[in-house]
Amino acid sequence: MSKSTVGGDQVTPTYLIRGARVVGGGPTDLLVAGGVVTRVGSGLDARGATVVDADGLVALPGLVDLHTHLREPGREDAETVESGSRAAALGGYTAVCAMANTSPVADTAGVVEQVWRLGREAGLVDVQPIGAVTVGLAGERLAELGAMADSAARVRIFSDDGHCVADPRLMRRALEYVKAFDGVIAQHAEEPRLTEGAQMHEGEVSTRLGLTGWPAVAEEAIIARDVLLAEHVGSRLHVCHLSTAGSVEVLRHAKARGVRVTAEVTPHHLLLTDEIVGGRRELVGPALAGPTSGGAGTVGTGYDPVFKVNPPLRTAADAAALREALIEGIIDVVATDHAPHALEDKECEWAYARPGMLGLETALSVLLSVLGERWDLIAERMSRTPARIAGLVEHGRDPAPGVPANLTLVDPAARRTVDPGEMASRSRNTPYAGMTLPGRIVATFLAGEPTVLDGKAVR
Amino acid sequence: MLKHLLSGADLDAATATLILDTAGEMARLAGREVKKLPALRGRTVVNLFYEDSTRTRISFEAAAKRLSADVINFSAKGSSVSKGESLKDTALTLQAMGADAVVIRHPASGAPHTLANWIDGSVLNAGDGTHEHPTQALLDAYTMRSRLGRVAGLSVAVVGDVLHSRVARSNVLLLATLGAKVTLVGPPTLIPVDIGTALAPGTEVSYDLDAVLPTADVVMMLRVQRERMADSYFPSAREYARRYGLDGPRMRRLPDHAIVMHPGPMNRGMEIAPEVADSSRSTIVEQVTNGVSVRMAVLYLLLGGMDR
């Protein structure tokens, strides 16, 4: 990938990032060469270096997404590893974990190596494949987890995402088995019998709209079971896209008992609520009043499948609880659940639409909208902790001499109105169309090379 | 006037009353030898039915024809839809044919709302999934008004499978708008969550039919599908009929003036006993007649018949 730095500092190309604000500090210069940050300080010598003016910008460790659907192989019309990688880079990401529900499913060493290789060829982010827990995501027998772990893709996270590993005995075995290679099971927590035919969050809005409800208890019951299983066998558990206030309480309890559990929340569950399915966007908490516009109001005739997602958008009370839990650390990371879908899979009746929404290119802006400019918290939840959970040692590290130069430069003063037509993703299913959100990614560096400059992908 | 009729919530009291009054005019017309009005001559009404529903389709067809509209029946079976055509492409086709109104029946909740994004004509929701059926609510209100003289202040018990009922949702919305008090009655498994506040504040819920009957002016029985017991909503058809079916002894607990309604088709012996269905309290046949008048009124008003 990058050239060796052994033998001194005569390595090209060299970048001087001038005047960036680093987390927990003031403006400083960052010299990047040979894939790493070589010097940090003020007034660094720019000789031989390409200067990147970062006046007014914040330098974050490159963002890391634990939950990305890249759709390749199988649905290259919706997204490819390359187009998804470009979307990720533009969103400030330097690493993404690619979910296993492709076609064919990433349940063998061959498929995960294919995805891993496509990621390297695209070269815009580090693509870390996630392996399926069960063969074909069918929930019946374990996939060859060890073979995927030992493959070139070095898989450490396993998930049947899109499906819950519902069989308790199979879940126990999976949790136990991956201990041999320090793996982690990322569970899509959804009790399947409680969500048969479910279309949206079960509550007042589902009753009004006549859509079959997806009750919060279907998520909470599985998380409760799984934290007990993880405790029983002493394994690591990661909970995907936590969406309810009740799940936060289960997690709080488990963490207090010392269970090795981590959890993620998506940007959309922090910002949007089930009211939007009925055509009404509501404000959640005070954070939205400021930097975000297009917050409250009427959105079309209702039943717009762009807002269909699994788990579904919940209530304002749930969103508020998720925000508090994210700040407090009960929820460890923000993950996008970036789920591109072809137009025909969204331009149809609500019940027939596929669930999922784009996330990579808007995640940081949504988090700025939700949390404000709490940079250390953002770095922790969107870079350092997800990198640690995924075992990506080159990522999630603040710029310092010798550290791999995986960085993103953010302009916090910028505002942008989300235009689905301008997305780098092959799909257009962003739920934020027309909303004005704070912040813009100006540049992203992957292993010392820019993938984004002046807000544009380099290729 | 409205562009579309998608939900009972689209109607304020003044608009709903105008429709009911207009339906009264239409009903008088039905008593004449020549039942036709020229109001919608040259206008095209499409019946777009993705579900079999002979009674609703015929009712809309009769209504449109009595207003002299051209009627096109488009049923999903044996059409381009069964060849996999999307709702959007069907909508664009109807748009290209110049449909002035599309009457849609669809198994997916919200399909009429989605359709309304793609066509310029009026969309009439003739029943969408487990969501709404607003013209049924209008004809029910019309029937109450013609039997009892008013809607405001009536106590209406809606009994049965409220969870899956589009009739119930539209009725709760419209009856609240018109000032009636609605009590939803059924086993807890068939009462949707938060129904007391989801549609109209003040909607009441009871699990005890016998307690509700003595003060009801109207009892509206909903169709209950026997298949629901396979999903454990209730243990058996017999137990359902015992606890929530309207039989002769229960009917006699109603006040003398109270009426019994059913949107049809009925399951005789399940939610309603034959003795009740065929009694003088029953408005079931009138509802069908009134359906045509109400749908005439809706088509007339939505398509701007008044201005012509």
Automatic annotation (TrEMBL), chain A:
A Pfam match: DHOase
Binding residues annotated for Zn(2+) 1, in chain numbering: 67, 69, 161, 337
Lyase keyword on record: no
Uppermost EC category: hydrolase
Cofactor list: Zn(2+)
Enzyme Commission code: 3.5.2.3
UniProt-listed HAMAP family: PyrC_classI_B
NCBIfam families, A to Z: PRK09357.1-1, pyrC_multi
Protein name: Dihydroorotase
Species of provenance: Plantactinospora alkalitolerans
Taxonomic classification: Bacteria, Bacillati, Actinomycetota, Actinomycetes, Micromonosporales
UniProtKB/TrEMBL annotation, chain B:
Keywords: Pyrimidine biosynthesis, Transferase
Listed InterPro entries: Asp/Orn_carbamoyltranf_P-bd, Asp/Orn_carbamoylTrfase, Asp/Orn_carbamoylTrfase_sf, Asp_carbamoyltransf, Asp_carbamoyltransf_Asp/Orn-bd
EC class of the enzyme, as a word: transferase
Enzyme Commission number(s) of this protein: 2.1.3.2
Keyword field contains Transferase: yes
Metabolic or biological pathway: Pyrimidine metabolism; UMP biosynthesis via de novo pathway; (S)-dihydroorotate from bicarbonate: step 2/3
UniProt-annotated binding residues for L-aspartate: 83, 166, 223
Any one GO MF annotation of this record: aspartate carbamoyltransferase activity
Domain (Aspartate/ornithine carbamoyltransferase Asp/Orn-binding): residue spans on this chain: 153-302
Pfam families registered for this protein in UniProt: OTCace, OTCace_N
Residues that, per the record, bind carbamoyl phosphate: 55-56, 105, 133, 136, 264-265
Function statement: Catalyzes the condensation of carbamoyl phosphate and aspartate to form carbamoyl aspartate and inorganic phosphate, the committed step in the de novo pyrimidine nucleotide biosynthesis pathway.
Annotated family: Belongs to the aspartate/ornithine carbamoyltransferase superfamily. ATCase family.
Quaternary context: Heterododecamer (2C3:3R2) of six catalytic PyrB chains organized as two trimers (C3), and six regulatory PyrI chains organized as three dimers (R2).
Protein name as annotated: Aspartate carbamoyltransferase
Gene designation: pyrB
